[in-house]
Predict the 3D structure of the following.
Amino acid sequence: MIGILNIGLNHRTAPVELRERFALDDKRIQDALSTIRELPCIKEGLFLSTCNRVECLSITDEPDAAREEIISLMAKIGNVTPDELSRMIYEYHGMDAVSHIFMVSSSLDSMIMGEPQILGQVKEAYRHAVNAKTSGVVLNRLMHRAFRTAKRVRTETGISDSAVSISYAAVELAKKIFFRLEGKDVLLVGAGEMAELAARHLINNGVDNIYIANRTFERAIQLAEEFNGAAVSFEEIQEYLTQVDIVITSTASPGYVIQYDDVKKAIKKRKGRPLFIIDIAVPRDVEPEVNGITNVYLYDIDELKNVIEINLERRKQEAIKAERIVKEEVIKFQKWLTTLEVVPTIKSLKEKVEQIRTSELKKTLSQLRDMDPENKKLIETLTISITDKILNDPIIMLKRKADRSTRDLFLDITRELFNLNSNNEEN
């Protein structure tokens, strides 16, 4: 019986200070896979390692022995005892393990549901397994089904469409105002973590120029170099309000950094061009009255949080559709897997019939020494055609019974009828 086993730990079962001890770089992954390859109880396997999870997915016909070996290996990786590790891991067996890897690949089991990075990490884990030759027939099929499932979830649901982080939500709002961000100029006021995240999202969406203003000018220069932008002083903010399209503020200033009069003066020089301001600072950086100025769109952090809450609810609804897709794909994989149970019998049947065919053909041709080679070839083709036609119906029947409760009965009957069991004696 083909067994599928997944053992791992993630952000739900272990704190970050423990998870980071299990993190695997390329070298450690190759070492772990080399160990897996030498274990007779594990037929195929891969290791998935991300900042939020480490998992070993394996194909085995000895699940108890495989479980013990994997826990021992992971304990060594994390420098903990197997007992300590057992308290922080989860286990999935059979179709539950299949469902889990499909959920992971589709970002339904991520800390932030719908985040796109996980699929690339799963593909990288599979690539390592292929290179290490620890992937075979079952794992190959399983992982390609996982990739297909993730693609269906991405294209058939909206689970990745809605922003669920402050910086990402800010950029998504900017896209709604301007439709496209290509060619737009941005001013970041403040150079903290959220400003940095916003800068990354903006660059990914094709903004043209990024200007960074910070009270500590050295930090502005540092961030500007990182994102190929330009550092500006706080005293230049007024000037840049007249030329940029988007302003994102995230300072720790106790008072307003951008005031009503500043924006009023700037908007007169903009000749009707809209100005989008996102204030993600607490306390706020932008005087609230700015929102009343024509062609100015101001959002503060509370408004962004409202957007995020709405989007989280949307993602939950989309997750229902996504989980239905996962269930469909698990059923399809299960049907394929059950067909493998009949493969050894079909193979034995074909081999026995081929052995009989070649043996009888050899006897016949030995008595037809004067026959020309072309006619001998015709006779051989005839014997192949006859045996293929005789085998066709039994093989089709076995495949049809592969996912039925009567499968084992028909396998036993077939092996008895054709005397395929090596310990059977001819009657």
